[in-house]
Amino acid sequence: MKTKSDSKEKSYSCKKCGSSFSRKQYLAIHMRTHTGEKTYPCKICSSSFAWKKHMLKHMLTHTVEKPYSCEVCGHSFLGKCSLEIHMRTHTGEKPYSCEICGSSFTQKNTMLIHMRKHTGEKPYACEICDFSFTRKHDLVTHTRRHTGDKPYSCEVCGRSFLRKRSLVIHMRTHTGEKPYSCRLCGSSFAQNQSLSVHMRTHTGEKPYSCDVCDSSFTQKNTMLIHMRKHTGEKPYVCEVCGFSFARKHDLVNHMRTHTGEKPFSCEVCGSSFTLKTTMLIHMQKHTGEKPYACEVCDFSFRRKHNLVLHMRTHTGEKPFSCEVCGSSFTLKNTMLKHMQKHTGEKPYSCEVCGRSFTHKHNMVCHMQTHTGEKPYSCEVCGRSFTHKNNMVCHMQTHTGEKPYSCEVCGHSFLRKRNLVIHMRTHTGERPYSCELCGSSFTQNPHLLAHMRTHTGEKPYSCEVCGSSFTQKNTMLIHMRKHTGEKPYACEVCGFSFTRKHNLVNHMRTHTVKDLCMI
Q1: Which of 62, 107, 183, 383 places its Cα 20 to 30 Å from the Cα of 18?
Q2: Rounded to whole angstroms, how far apart are CA atoms 223 and 364?
Q3: 8-118 falls under which CATH superfamily?
Q4: Could you tell me the residue ranges of all domains in the chain?
Q5: Bridge partners of 293?
Q6: How far is CA 202 from CA 186, 196, 206, 207, 220, in A?
Q7: pTM to 2 decimals?
Q8: How far apart are the first and last CA of the chain?
Q9: Residue 479 carries which DSSP code?
Q10: Sign of the CA dihedral with 41 first, then 46, 47, and 48 last
Q11: What does the pLDDT look like over 41-74, one tens digit per residue?
């Protein structure tokens, strides 16, 4: 049955949201929802309202008068209308139905808000960031993100919240209340939503699917975070260094690298860690636990991730490929570092001399050339080194150990890298090519030095006379002219030379007889 108000023609329409009204007066009042105008102030607490009836209802909150009581549960209400709506929670009456999907509601306003899901209408727009919302309440809550206003505070720990409901849920962390219980396993939860998600572990339901790769998830939020892998979106930005993250949790963990905070401590040795997972993995050093075992070679690992990477040594899997040259890699990080050879990117710069590096580790090591720091010392001769790896290799000069041998000629080397470079003398491989003239080289440093013949760059300068050189080694040899240093001495006649090459040529001037007398 149509009411009197329904039968009247609604000839006054809002130009902003399209709502229609039967009287011009109603339209004028409605416009206040867009302009924010509130012409009816409360004389007691200075709250303002767009509607007079809302102000009068608010006044009752000061008198604490709630004249309308529920006969079933005794709940009291300020208005008769509120009591009628409340009674539907007892009767189960839902008189308002959605014409599109058939959903039913106890209140007409709730049904109208629901209809916006179908129409896509979002009449409440944020004036700061242009975000739009279907409900005014959501706009009010959203605006607090810009203003920083958190009106709901916990009386126990002082933490503040944007929403009252968030405070109610938070209080359960203090009271321990978990009112929502699983009927199957008895697990309890502080939120009904958490229970709903938990139930999917029993049913196996994963209602949220990725449109790109068809992966399924139990929670919508997990699916949205997953989508960022495809979109590349990283909405959480570090204000200190500008690093971005897909998850807020990752940003929180990252911030500890700036603050130095390490909230997780080892109970055995007292070591502190930024992440709980890192602390738990560290604990396995004390317990000796390595729960992840390789089924092929019985190697064990503390982390599952390390086992996954190790398995690729058996399968030969190299899932990460370079888009430029097609080279494949077992680790994504190794592939990204390789890509920098093509892009020429050197994101890590020295603050002292401005030199750039592709890897952060190389930049940190380079900084020691300015500070003079050499933290690694040889226990035999006391010589110090900037890199631990160099010290380890140096130790082998005392032991005579050369663990890397060439299978072709039997030549042995201190370092694996030197063996790799040496092998190219047998294979003829020259993987580093000049893009300008096509010359090829066995080592990348040789290519870099060669490129300077094209660019004319001479980055190494003599501090005494200002002469410039393309290679550091050439500059060091030149410096011997000023210092008089001649480190290469002939064992036959005692003659000294600045270069080893000159000594080799000089040795030819001595006869076999001279050499036998040494």
Answers
A1: 107
A2: 38
A3: Classic Zinc Finger (3.30.160.60)
A4: 8-118
A5: 300
A6: 12, 11, 11, 14, 18
A7: 0.36
A8: 124
A9: H
A10: positive
A11: 888 877 787 778 778 877 777 776 778 888 888 8
